[in-house]
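Objective 1b. Sequence-to-structure analysis of Caax amino protease family protein.
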Amino acid sequence: MLLSAFAYGFNHIHFGLAIFVSKFLIGIIYFLVFFIFKNFYCVVLIHVLSNIIVFGLSFLQIKGKLCF
């Protein structure tokens, strides 16, 4: 579990240490979702929804609608 979470986090290391740590923790959450539901597609769905939220927030930030 920790190795796969580390690999997922390390894949994002070029964004900085804080992103690495957050992705490492998210990797652990993804593993737990897979462990509980025994379904790869649940993890894929959560990952896709997470990306949609991140892209949406990034778009709003670029447009000046968000202050962070």
